[in-house]
Design goal:
Helix content of chain A: 40-55%
Structural class of chain B: mainly alpha
Number of domains of chain A: 2
CATH class of the largest domain in chain A: Alpha Beta
Number of strands of chain A: 10
Low-confidence stretches of chain B: none
Strand content of chain B: under 5%
CATH architecture of the largest domain in chain A: 3-Layer(aba) Sandwich
Largest sheet of chain B: 2 strands, antiparallel
Number of domains of chain B: 1
Mean pLDDT of chain B: 87
Number of helices of chain B: 12
Distance between the termini of chain B: 36 Å
Mean pLDDT of chain A: 88
Radius of gyration of chain A: 28 Å
Number of strands of chain B: 2
Strand order of the largest sheet of chain B: 1-2
Oligomer: heterodimer
Order of helices and strands of chain A: HHHEHEHEHHEEHHEHEHEEHHHHHEH
Distance between the termini of chain A: 84 Å
Helix content of chain B: over 70%
Order of helices and strands of chain B: HEEHHHHHHHHHHH
CATH class of chain B: Mainly Alpha
Low-confidence stretches of chain A: none
Number of helices of chain A: 17
CATH superfamily of the largest domain in chain A: Periplasmic binding protein-like II
Largest interface: A-B, 41 and 43 residues
CATH topology of the largest domain in chain A: D-Maltodextrin-Binding Protein, domain 2
CATH superfamily of chain B: MetI-like
């Protein structure tokens, strides 16, 4: 008789059953799903990689059939209008359009990031008119086709009253998508009671005597310009190596504990509350703060140079009331309205004929506001002369997206970490 | 094979709902994130897949202090929470009596209010002229320019407060499961209360501690609300950086690289911890 098979049952099973059991099957399917997802991914961009001028009929196509709605939602930066909004009241009186004015823009980067998803999906952002600075984000708005092309037939006041330089901008030639709101300068603001010596140079922002009391902007373009100017480099001619040098200089300022914080628009409140004594600042904000709070902050454009930028009216392409928006744009180019606005905000107005009106208002004023009106009617911060303009530089310009990404990657870690 | 096709496919069918959910909501997003972290480009001109590993190196180099700080804060928070949670859980489990569920409900009551609102209310309590510091400054216990907001202790306090129930509940569950006869037996064998705790109760509660650590260390390290509200620029955590990169700068490759790295670090940390704790199979303990 043969012996019963001495082989172990398990061994027999292992040799005869399938090698691939259920667990292996699941494992393989999971891994392959993952691998497929990995290889397939790439996120499509919204815009074209080369800047395109819109087709000649794009203006006609956009504005065809658009009518006045009677209501306007206007997004702007803080400190760009008298809180009593006399200009908007006048606008409502003359045109019957009610305006919902919101000061929701604090910094360009976050604003673009906030509205980009909705605009990319073709949805309304809740605003018909917004004010955006020339710079990286402006170019992104244009490239992504997020801005409506303007119909200059509906902008007679702009054509008649705007200064020549504002019709020749490099960032929006021909004013296809925007017309200027105001221009402004970035310099240094300081509290003379806390900072005993008058400040004149950028190097003062690096002074260890003000450790922990210095504010800088969190906008990478503003920060980079000051870093470059502190190193004696012209931003318009700067290269990647220059940016690295500027970033190292700024990092040294940060590591030494000199910078308290990197601010957006809220720097002016920090200056007011004494959180910082000396800070990067925008020209008109300081003038307004002195009037509204009775403070005595000083604003100065440093010897090494400052920055000049232009904030522009733009209509998002998904605006619900573009006709009302363009009427508002044109309204602010009336000389008396431009004068009224510039008198309050203290920024550079794009309407040169506002100056004689402001001078007349200053002469006629008998209240204690007279000194301030005199100041803004003649100030080089509101009507810059050639010597002031010579010290001012634009933001760094980028020939392509890769350079821009490299720029952001150099300066963002300073602000975010 | 004697089994019908239906019998062989049945297990796969049973796994299908859970497996599909895991695949769609976990595996695919994870893979998409890893894939995105290897792309280059920007939002306007699109991201193209180039397997650009340099992103990881750059992200680590630029934000290493944030990563380190987040892990340290997470660790300190977890340790503090174990110290705070254990007595609470012990008391509810052993001395709670009839009202155990009431006490647990009271513990969870703050969760009815939004996480962010609770953190902001801590900011009001701890601010320079707030509820806590005004009397202390009036009695000259602390100097006049003393501030709590904006320092590391404020952030750790916020983190500890917000995640405490996640530590108390697992420890409570583990303590609940301890058979009281084991404790009795220890007492019968002449063990002092301290020895009973040290040799019987604490080791039996360790799986609960492990689960609590799992549920607090990971969210605490990646939190950004507390650092945003209660901290300053010297206490930034990696969660804030990731959020800023995703939502403000729209730099998706760096943000994804940081997310994935953080996840990997936390996973490695948890596995090492499980080994030290002596649990042979991490998944088995977590499931208990």
């Amino acid at each position: 008789m043969t012996e019963p098979n001495p082989m172990d049952a398990a061994l027999l099973r292992g040799m005869t059953q399938r090698r691939l059991n259920r667990r292996d099957a699941l494992r393989i399917s999971g891994l392959s799903a993952m691998a497929l997802a990995l290889a397939a991914c790439g996120v499509k961009g919204q815009g074209t990689s080369t800047p395109t001028t819109p087709a000649a009929d794009a203006v006609a196509k956009f504005w065809a059939g658009k009518t006045k709605k009677g209501h306007l939602d206007f997004a702007n930066w803080p400190l760009y209008m008298d809180p009593k909004k006399p200009e908007l009241a006048e606008f409502t009186k003359q045109t019957g359009i009610t305006v919902n004015y919101q000061e929701v823009i604090q910094e360009m980067g976050p604003w673009f990031a906030k509205v980009q998803p909705q605009l990319a999906a073709g949805q309304s952002i809740g605003y018909d008119l917004m004010v955006i600075t020339n710079g990286i984000q402006f170019a992104q708005f244009v490239k992504s086709n997020f801005l409506a092309p303007l119909d200059h037939a509906q902008l007679p006041n702009f054509t008649a009253n705007a200064g020549a330089t504002y019709k020749k901008s490099t960032y929006d030639p021909g004013n296809v998508y925007s017309v200027p709101w105001t221009s402004g300068m970035t310099g240094i603001a300081y509290d003379p009671e806390k900072v005993k010596n008058p400040i004149t140079k950028l190097a003062d922002l690096w002074n260890p005597a003000y450790k922990g009391k210095v504010g800088m902007f969190s906008d990478t373009q503003e920060l980079a310009n000051f870093g470059l100017l502190a190193e004696g480099i012209d931003p318009a001619k700067s290269t990647k190596a220059d940016w690295q040098k500027a970033a190292d200089r700024l990092k040294q300022q940060k590591d030494a504990g000199i910078v308290r914080k990197y601010y957006d628009q809220a720097y002016i409140d920090a200056l007011g509350s004494g959180e910082v004594w000396i800070t990067q600042a925008w020209s008109g904000d300081v003038l307004q703060k002195n009037v509204s709070d009775g403070t005595n902050f000083q604003f100065v454009i440093p010897e090494e140079g400052g920055t000049i930028w232009t904030d522009n009216f733009a209509i998002p392409i998904t605006a619900a009331a573009p006709v009302d928006a363009i009427m508002a744009m044109d309204f602010f180019y009336k000389p008396e309205i431009a004068a009224s606005l510039a008198e309050f905000i203290g920024y550079v107005t794009p309407v040169p004929s506002a100056q004689p009106i402001m001078q007349k208002d200053a002469d006629a004023d008998t209240t204690d506001n007279k000194d301030y009106l005199e100041l803004v009617a003649k100030s080089p911060l509101v009507f810059p002369d050639a010597s002031t303009l010579a010290k001012l530089h634009y933001y760094v310009d980028f020939p392509d997206a890769a350079t821009q990404t490299a720029f952001q990657n150099i300066f963002e870690p300073l602000v975010l970490s | 094979m004697g089994r019908s096709l239906r019998a062989r496919l049945a297990p796969y069918g049973l796994i299908l709902p859970g497996g599909l959910w895991l695949l769609v909501f976990f595996v695919v997003p994870m893979a998409a994130m890893v894939s995105l972290s290897l792309t280059e480009g920007d939002v306007v001109s699109g991201f193209s897949q180039t397997f650009h590993f340099q992103t990881y190196v750059d992200a680590f180099h630029n934000y290493q202090s944030q990563i380190y700080r987040s892990l340290v804060y997470g660790l300190i928070t977890t340790v503090v929470q174990i110290i705070l949670a254990f007595p609470v859980a012990y008391w509810i489990a052993f001395r709670g009596g009839v009202r155990k569920s009431t006490y647990l409900f009271l513990l969870l009551l703050p969760f009815f209010v939004s996480f962010v609102l609770r953190t902001i209310s801590w900011k009001f309590i701890l601010t320079d002229d707030g509820l806590l510091l005004t009397p202390l400054k009036a009695w000259h216990v602390v100097p006049d320019n003393f501030h709590i907001i904006g320092t590391a202790p404020a952030v750790i306090l916020g983190l500890t407060y917000n995640f405490l129930p996640f530590m108390v509940l697992p420890i409570y569950v583990a303590l609940e499961r301890i058979d009281p006869r084991v404790v009795e037996a220890a007492r019968d064998l002449y063990a002092s209360p301290v020895a009973v705790f040290r040799k019987v109760i604490f080791p039996l509660a360790l799986p609960g501690v492990f689960a609590g650590v799992l549920m607090t260390f990971v969210p605490t390290s990646s939190d950004y609300v507390n650092a945003e509200v209660l901290g300053s620029s010297s206490t930034t955590m990696i969660g804030q950086v990731i959020q800023a990169q995703y939502l403000r700068s729209q730099n998706y490759p760096t943000a994804s690289a940081l997310s994935f790295s953080l996840m990997a670090i936390l996973l490695v940390g948890i596995f090492i911890y499980a080994r030290i704790l002596g649990t042979e199979d991490v998944l088995k303990v977590a499931a208990r």
